[in-house]
């Protein structure tokens, strides 16, 4: 199969979050299975100069944005066996930052139309176009309305992956004619609850809808998680599927990670004790064998920070220490800063995001707390397990799919079900009890480190899904 991944960002060219990591990793994993993969993203100002030097201009064309005709440059580069295409328009993409502009709707209307126009001029002819999040949601819509019956386009199938349903691309009805160039008699594809909803258009038009974990796929049918689109998704269950994201097992490898204090593996975990001892020194925590809980996250409500606030001091007073790294809403930043002041030697708080420190925390802590109220997939719990830190998570989304409670057989962490601080506290207490049983704890750490959350496993599932789609 030939698979084209269309996205608004991809490592190493431009990144603002987890989407870039997925688009940077998944095509390589699928390519390793014997399939041809390509990626197309906008050519942002943020693309590093040294990477631009490897790009070649294929051609330039004009792209319709409703009644406008806009310049579009098409650039090409190859990296790690993957073909990368870049859509160039300085007016839309030569800016500081990737998103958050007044004309984001117009920018990605242009990009989505340009992706489909690009196919006439490049050597790569896809069997599947895999679209990701609202920024590429119009590709299935435009394909269905304008391209499906054009010469050379008829055999293409479209898949759309929801990485976080909270972000939908909602705009007023005026954008339908003014920007999208879609006639009013087709407005039902995109109109929803009085708005033009780009994500809804993709749900209506794509041949397959994918989410980033099996549990999240089921949760999206519930009004609590569906962000208003659950009513639509309940009519699309025949084409909805959850596939768990993976992590780069080479990048996150405690056996050779250059950012951590000492190397270790599931066969010899002795180096983890060295990592803990050095982390204690670097963060100015009190020496001793008490368990350290790590928190590396954005300080926002859906990450479960309110649960942590409710019982934080109780956990500290029970004989546990914290290594906290993150940033976000001011109320949460101020809370953690105050806890660091109130409990010196017990609580270390670093506001911001420092990749090197995050890796040291994963390697040096005993437990990793992630009590999200919703989590489409989550990567931090997988990274924590890779580094021998037992995750303590709420059973939601990808957290439920990856963490099994140690109260049963073959557990790799600790879980709780409800959005309730006392239930979270009970999971923390159970983790502490198991930590004090050294043989039981060592077995848990080794089980966690043995889990395979590689992209290879995810790629197998994507390949199966795409192959089924091609036969429909």
List the helices and strands and how they pair.
Layout (H helix, E strand, L loop, with lengths): L1 E5 L11 H14 L4 E7 L6 H4 L3 E10 L2 E12 L2 E7 L1 H4 L10 H15 L9 E5 L5 H10 L9 E6 L7 E2 L3 H6 L10 E2 L2 E3 H8 L2 E4 L2 H6 L3 H4 L3 H4 L6 E3 L27 H13 L9 E8 L5 H13 L3 E8 L1 H13 L4 E5 L3 H10 L2 E4 L9 H7 L3 E5 L2 H6 L11 E3 L4 H15 L2 H13 L4 H17 L1
Parallel strand pairs: 1-2, 1-6, 2-5, 6-7, 7-11, 11-12, 13-14, 13-16, 14-15, 16-17, 17-18
Antiparallel strand pairs: 3-4, 4-5, 8-10, 9-10
Describe this structure in a few short sentences.
This protein is α/β, with parallel strands linked by helices and 472 residues long. The protein has 2 domains: 2-246 and 456-471, Glycogen Phosphorylase B (Rossmann fold, 3-Layer(aba) Sandwich), CATH 3.40.50.2000; 270-452, Glycogen Phosphorylase B (Rossmann fold, 3-Layer(aba) Sandwich).
């Amino acid at each position: 199969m030939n698979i084209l991944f269309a996205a608004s960002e991809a490592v190493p060219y431009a990144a603002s979050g987890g989407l870039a990591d997925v688009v940077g990793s998944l095509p390589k994993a699928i390519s390793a299975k014997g399939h041809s993969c390509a990626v197309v993203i906008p050519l942002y100002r943020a693309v590093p100069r040294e990477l631009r030097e490897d790009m070649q201009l294929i051609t330039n064309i004009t792209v319709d944005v409703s009644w406008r005709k806009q310049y579009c440059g098409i650039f090409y580069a190859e990296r790690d066996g993957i073909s990368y295409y870049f859509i160039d328009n300085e007016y839309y993409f030569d800016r500081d930052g990737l998103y958050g502009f007044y004309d984001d709707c117009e920018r990605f209307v242009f990009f989505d139309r340009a992706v489909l126009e690009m196919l006439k001029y490049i050597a790569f002819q896809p069997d599947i176009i895999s679209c990701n999040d609202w920024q590429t949601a119009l590709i299935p819509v435009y394909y269905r309305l304008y391209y499906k019956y054009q010469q050379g386009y008829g055999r293409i199938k479209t898949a759309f992956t929801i990485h976080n349903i909270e972000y939908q691309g909602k705009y007023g009805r005026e954008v339908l004619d003014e920007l999208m160039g879609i006639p009013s008699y087709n407005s039902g594809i995109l109109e929803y609850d009085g708005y033009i909803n780009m994500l809804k258009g993709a749900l209506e038009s794509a041949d397959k809808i994918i989410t980033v974990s099996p549990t999240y796929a089921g949760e999206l049918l519930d009004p609590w998680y569906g962000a208003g689109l659950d009513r639509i998704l309940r009519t699309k269950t025949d084409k909805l599927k959850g596939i768990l994201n993976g992590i780069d097992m080479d990048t996150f490898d405690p056996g050779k990670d250059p950012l951590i204090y000492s190397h270790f593996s599931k066969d010899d975990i002795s180096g983890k004790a060295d990592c803990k001892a050095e982390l204690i020194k670097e963060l100015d925590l009190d020496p001793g064998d008490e368990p350290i809980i790590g928190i590396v996250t954005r300080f926002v409500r859906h990450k479960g920070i309110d649960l942590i606030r409710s019982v934080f001091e109780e956990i500290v007073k029970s004989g546990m220490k914290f290594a906290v790294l993150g940033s976000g809403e001011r109320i949460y930043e101020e809370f953690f800063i105050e806890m660091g002041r109130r409990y010196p030697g017990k609580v270390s708080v670093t506001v911001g995001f420092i990749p090197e420190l995050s890796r040291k925390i994963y390697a040096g802590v005993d437990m990793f707390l992630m009590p999200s109220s919703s989590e489409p997939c989550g990567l931090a719990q997988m990274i924590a397990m890779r580094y021998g830190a037992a995750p303590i998570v709420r059973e939601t989304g990808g957290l439920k799919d990856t963490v099994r409670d140690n109260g049963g057989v073959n557990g790799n962490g600790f879980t709780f079900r409800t959005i309730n601080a006392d239930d979270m506290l009970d999971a923390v207490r159970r983790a502490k009890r198991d930590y004090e049983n050294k043989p039981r704890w060592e077995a848990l750490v080794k089980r966690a480190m043995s889990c395979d959350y590689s992209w290879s496993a995810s790629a197998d599932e994507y390949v199966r899904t795409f192959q089924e789609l091609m036969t429909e």
